[in-house]
Design brief:
CATH architecture: Clam
Structural class: alpha+beta
CATH class: Mainly Beta
Radius of gyration: 19 Å
Distance between the termini: 61 Å
Strand content: 35-45%
Length: 222
């Protein structure tokens, strides 16, 4: 019984992680002028990426991802295709309402569409939560932290070696997502890495094929 209690305590403590400490700028003037790292879209865009997915057991697959994203309305339309042009998955999220138009295996699970839209929003949209702190991490990275309505935390950080990163934590401080942008490329979306900590961990490597602003009204649902 004692060993069981210790084991339960160990798992409880390991699940209650703490967020990295953000140290405020040294002066109030510096804090007021602080500019948060912002790798996010400022206007409607259509982006096409070659996506390499790595699953548990180092299984790999390659697809083409097409994303239409409007940061002003936080609306998203996305599709996954084979290199030959076959549509495997297609969905859209307009004003918070998700609709799946096509989903072939293995993209037909209930959680896949929701997670994909959330990942796209995490990559391309400014966090909608309240800015709670800004300053520097222990390694010198500039950092801004947002608290979401669901209790989760989003950190956006920037330093010379790692570039810009967006990290999402659970309400208890467990790291769920890491989005890494290579700011040395001409287009910040040229190469994006996503690492997900799930029941089955996975990572995505996105290499940009095409990106262009969209001037027409993209999202109009009847």
């Amino acid at each position: 019984m004692k060993r069981l209690s210790l084991l339960i305590l160990f798992f409880f403590l390991s699940s209650c992680q703490t967020l990295p400490v953000i140290h405020s700028p040294s002066s109030s003037a510096g804090e007021k002028s602080w500019a948060c790292p912002s790798p996010f879209l400022k206007e409607k865009y259509r982006l096409v990426h070659a996506i390499e997915a790595r699953m548990a057991g180092n299984q790999r697959s390659s697809v083409i991802g097409i994303t239409l994203a409007d940061p002003s309305s936080r609306s998203v339309s996305c599709a996954i295709m084979t290199a030959e042009g076959m549509v495997l998955f297609e969905a859209e999220s307009v004003q918070g309402t998700l609709r799946v138009n096509r989903a072939l295996p293995p993209f037909d699970s209930e959680s896949f569409a929701k997670n994909m839209i959330e990942d796209i929003e995490l990559i391309f949209f400014q966090p909608p939560g309240n800015l709670r702190s800004k300053g520097y991490l222990a390694d010198g990275s500039a950092a801004c932290r947002y608290l979401e309505e669901d209790g989760k935390w989003i950190d956006v950080t920037e330093n010379q070696s790692d570039g810009i990163q967006t990290k999402r934590y659970s309400s208890s401080g467990a790291l769920e997502r890491i989005i890494s942008f290579n700011k040395r490329t001409k287009n910040i979306y040229q190469r994006i890495e996503l690492q997900a900590d799930e029941t089955f961990d996975y990572s995505l490597l996105l290499n940009l094929i095409e990106a262009q602003p969209v001037k027409t009204k993209m999202f109009k649902r009847k």
